[in-house]
Amino acid sequence: MQFDMTRAWNDAVARISANREVLLIVAGLFFFLPYVVFMLMLPGAAAMIPSGGATDPQEASRILLSFYGKIWWIVLLLLVAQSIGTLALFSLLTDHRRPTVGDALKFGLIALLPFLGMQILQSLVLVFALGIPLGAAIASQSTAAIVLVATAAIVAMAYLLTKFSLGTAVMAREHVLNPVAALTRSWKLTKGNSLRIFLFYFLLGVVAVVVSMVVSTVVSLVLMLLGTQAMLFGSALVSGLTNAVWVLLFLAVQAAIHGQLAGESPTSLNDTFS
What we know:
By secondary structure, this protein is mainly α. The chain has helices at about 5-20, 20-40, 45, 55-70, 70-95, 100-110, 110-140, 145-165, 165-175, 180-190, 195-225, 230-260, 265-274. It has a domain at about 5-110 and about 195-274. Helix 7 (about 110-140) packs across helix 10. The longest helix is centred in the last third of the chain and has 34 residues, at about 230-260.
């Protein structure tokens, strides 16, 4: 089956519209609020830098590492919370039985360890496939080799991430909780459509970056008139909102791509969007 970008986009929008109330609740709880809290904490890192500025990059790095070293447990909690939120959103976006928020969160808890295992496995594949050749090129101290291998690594990373991108949708829609099986299934589903899917992701990413930059710039200019504290708080709220919106949209797109390539039946689609 040839991947159809237009159909995937329309399907993604339909999935969000069909269940937008519960989707917004989960996205707000797991992506909006945590992101706002984290953004409000970032000024703490800046406050640790001397008033004259940290001219030494190593000193600046040390300060940032010290800051994150103090809040590592918060970062870990955010990672776990957003993992559960991702799984819950996928459940709401892909399950034709129209699960409740409670059902979706239950699935998020059940699938949490397999999901984290899949992320670790995917990271290991990227490290071995890309990190080792790049490390060897750097060790050779050959500029030409470094540039060549780095370019190849970027292309390979885009390819691998595209091939693995439907793993979470496989877990949620097909209830495949084996990390290896989920990634293998994603690889098979994207076969023959990898370039089209990557281009779709790339275009969405460009739009997301441009829109986010424009919104952030306009809001920052307006909030600057209200003072520093208002600007920090307002920027955190806007950043949290844009983060939640884009996460929800990208997950809906992945769910739509999976539904299209997996041959989701018309009956299931009608049940989902009725």
